[in-house]
# Entry
Amino acid sequence: MGRAWIGLAALSLLGCLDVAEERARIDSRVGRAEIDVAAVRVDSGSAAVRTFADGELRLWASAPTLSIALELENDAASSWEVRIENAMPDAELTAEQDGEPLAVETVERAVPTDVTFRIDGTAGGTVELSITVADADSRQPYRYAVFADVQSAIDDVQDIYTRMNAVEDLRFVVMSGDLTEQGEPAELRRFQRELKELRVPVFSTLGNHELGASEGNYHRHFGRGNHHFTFRGTHFTLLDDASATLAPVVYDWLDGWLEDGRDAFHSVYMHIPPLDASGVRNGAFASRAEANMMLGKLARAGVDLTVYGHVHSFYAYQNAGIPAFITGGGGAIPERLDRLGRHFVTVTVDPQTQLFETAIVHVD
# Structure
């Protein structure tokens, strides 16, 4: 009986690893596309290539700033329209070729986070594109929000966005997974449409509810599940633990990201908490040994903040001495009797002191 249970548990964990590894392989291909006369590559930041044709590029951004390389054949279009969805509301684009600036015009900003630029004068060779904001290198305090677990409550999510829009000086939102009920393409597109009413972008990773459909749907619409970005000298790492584990290659990426953020404020976001916050549910990694290893790695690197979803409530606690929050108040079926309802958390960071303050914002 004991050996059989151990064998079944091992097979189950191997299955999770296989799925997590496949999503990590998809991650490595995100942000790249080719056509006969051109290729595009997102070099820093993260973005999903939603449309790529001669003279047309559309991206869904997953970071405040992006660096993009366009490799053009001699017969490629000399004018390009570049549309950035989920952009910072004050995002600007600059373009260079052979060290010389190219003419860039803002064609349309339909909503604050959806902007289209036109670049004129491109020729064969490499065009370097930079999406940035004026305060990207500032070291002044700023505020962002975190939340998770919308799932089937998509019809009511505008209540949350209205409340977020009322938060003064909010720069962006980080979401720790479970955007949808099943991860179907139509659900993912609906989530993106609803975001158009939010005045700031949402940078996310996926949750277990995005695994209900075929692999890669989330990546095609939103970009990488495992990614890292910096803003105002602070570091953000988002990890895909939707299978209650991390793929081995992700730990290699994580080591590099942790080293990059060692001397700065560094926050880490996952959907499933490594360890169950209350010890009364199965809301944790499949392997307690892996959870302990992961938390030790974060603690040794001096991570300042960890944020999770998955549990449809709010918890504030510590893991390995690291401040931890669960904020799963996006509208999915709430934890019984907690009387909390829908909510999100704001985080105010001082990049110079590396100190932060949090506040829970109730929507219901």
